[in-house]
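Shipment paperwork, digital attachment
Item: protein structure file
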Amino acid sequence: SAARVYIDRLDAGRRTEIERSADLMRLHTAILEYDLAVLRHDAGELDQAEPKYRSALKVFESLANAERAGPAMVGLARLLIQRNLTSDEPSDNHYVEAEELLVNALETYDSHPTAWSLVDRRTLQRRALEQLRTLYGPDAWDEAELLANAQAELDALDAMPLDPEPAPVSK
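Attachment content:
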């Protein structure tokens, strides 16, 4: 009957609205977790920061929120590199994961250019490239060729104008 179809559509609409509300609540919680991870990380509390980064990143990725996922990837990678550099028993697994996170973050910045302003995107790209430079540097993996590549990408990023050239005016 027409009444049943109407009720089914109304129920589907309510379910959709409830799902959107739940996703929004998950996003807000993940943002708070990420902020707490950054605070803990900056305070040198790496063991407390890592699970917060991971939890927030998992939510950002599940919600396809590139704007938040990229910086979370870089933060977690920075933590893993820092942990290894200060550890008596460094683990190559931390470096491998950090590299994967940083490469994914750079790909995220390239594939979602409208998620950030040009200045913000360049700042985020710079942070990821700087972490790759640390990762490939003499204190970590000591990979001269990869270090040179990361430096070249940083130099190219710095050489790009912040304001795109205006289109020529035709008369």
